[in-house]
Amino acid sequence: MLFKDLGLSPEVVEAIESIGYSEATPIQEKTIPILMTGKDLTGQAQTGTGKTAAFGIPAIEHVDISINQTQSLILCPTRELALQVSTELKKLAKFKKGLRVLAVYGGESIERQIKDLKFGAHIVVGTPGRIIDHLDRRTLNASHLSQIILDEADEMLNMGFREDIELILTRLPEQRQTVLFSATLAPPILALAKRFQNNPEIIKIERKELTISTVEQFYYLVRNAQKTEIVTQIIDLNNLQLMLIFCNTKRKVEEVTDELKAYGHNPISLHGDKTQRDRTEVMNKFRKGQANILVATDVAARGIDVTGVDAVINYDVPLDIENYVHRIGRTGRAGQLGKSFTLVTNDEKYKLRDIERYTKATIEKAETPTRQELVAYKKDKLATRITTELEKPNIKIWADLLEEYKEKGITAEQIAIALLSKEMKDLAEPERRERTFEDRGDRGGRFERGGDRGGRFERGGDRGDRRDGPRRDGRSSERFGDRPAASRDRDGGERRERTPRPRTSDASMARLFVNVGRIDRISPGDIVGAFAGEANIKGSQIGQIDIFDKYSFVELPHDLVDQVMDGMRNNKIKGKSINIEISNGKQ
Ligand code: ADP
Ligand code: MG
Predict the structure, then answer these.
(1) Nearest listed ligand to the Cα of residue 77
(2) Model-level pTM greater than 0.70?
(3) Ligand 1 pocket check for 80: Cβ under 6 Å
(4) Span 556-586, pLDDT tens digits
(5) N vs C: which end of the chain shows fewer Cβ within 10 Å?
(6) Closest by Cα among 189, 159, 186 to 81
(7) Whether CATH 3.40.50.300 fits 210-365
(8) Which residues neighbour 444 within 8 Å (Cβ) at sequence distance 6 or greater?
(9) Which ligand 1 atom sits nearest the alpha carbon of residue 45?
(10) Per residue in 395-417, pLDDT tens?
(11) Cβ–Cβ < 8 Å for 243, 294
């Protein structure tokens, strides 16, 4: 249905045209006409279906601009969402001369908000806590409020805003329109509706439409210690440009952000403990593409709408099934295609099944890439870069250098090989790759034996497949939901994954991640010296040391780990502050 057939004002129709929406989405089509009559309504639709405009357009039409009073109040669970909703409303009200929309939320100077409120705002979008604050201070005058809208009502209840919301609702004039929008209609929402709404219309989108058809969903079976490395592989092999990575805790968000930096990425992080200034800055950076990876908790990313997010990575399986839908809804928006990748450990497999049952979607199993695939991928990418480089006109200035080498008896071919080796250095360290893949049962083993290297790759992967997306497992029987769990467990491949080999070369040893590497000019001797000197252990107690460019791994008997971590706290190696983490999944 077209917007102009929904009985909207010409100004709003013009604004919608200038934004570029051609047709109303189903939730908009169903709810806008009802909301325009002033009736109470509870609406449920999946994430990414345009709920903001569904309530935003009627809110704009509801306002009488000639009365300089707040007439519509919109509550949102987070600051980011309040900002986003107010921004969208401002766009929709672009041609409504004099209509003012104001966002108020905690973390921002209240004085400034008081000034803005005094000046007058027809529509106020805010978080519950700050709205109560303004009601208490009488800086928000509720006497003309004739419409209240709760966006993401279920999430606000989940976040513990129930009392705040009830308090706000009881303070508003009785004569008003009360609107709830929610991704689910869980009992607490219905209870809220019953208590505060007057004969509401309930508009529902059935469960089976809940997941987003524009998102291709994959999962990887991994061990905790592999997760960050697998994430970097997912990014590489899918050529991801803009992505969100979700973790379940703030701590994990920070950890993953640091680890990705160690891998040479440029991530930014978002969670509830950040100051408002930081949060706004982070979102701006992400929106402008100044950072292409946003690592976040659920709370921080709720409802966030950034165009062009090509993938969502669930570093942790969400604790709440609902959040799975919300997370992956950050990609595949507005008709674009997106991908989601969920990292699942063996004991979380049941959660994945629950998600599939709930969303009625198939989450396809993807295999972690083999070393051969990574090499082939990097070769490909490098070849393209070389070709591009060769086409550049001023490339000749380097010819002198070649001449100099020639005089020393070094051939152009030798130089080329040296440069290639430098370029591919990540992959020139079989040690590291073996460790990554040894968890994967047969394939890791095969790789170590070396005999039939590449066999798997030749069978499994034509190159096009690789670039289009993760390699599918191919065995449809592996998909969850296809057959009951019991029969799956008898599957040989699955059983192998249940008895992974120890990650370290010696099970009695812990593997520590140390944030110094070759670029810090670290040698094994430096690490032994520091550990022995500062933590008072014997050099001979230290096991294998693997030094990579930006970090190193050090094996240590489990019972010495605490001593070393204590001893090294606030210490430096070669002038660099040391951060040590246990990396073998035992944390
Ligand atoms: P929800 O709140 O349901 O998760 P949003 O309101 O954030 O969804 O909208 C999701 C995306 O769809 C936004 O980028 C929005 O601009 C876009 N959108 C909304 N309505 C339409 C429409 N009628 N046609 C095309 N795109 C739309
Ligand atoms: Mg929304």
Answers:
(1) 2
(2) no
(3) no
(4) 888 888 888 888 887 888 778 888 888 754 3
(5) C
(6) 159
(7) yes
(8) 434, 437, 438, 501
(9) 3
(10) 777 788 888 888 888 888 888 88
(11) yes
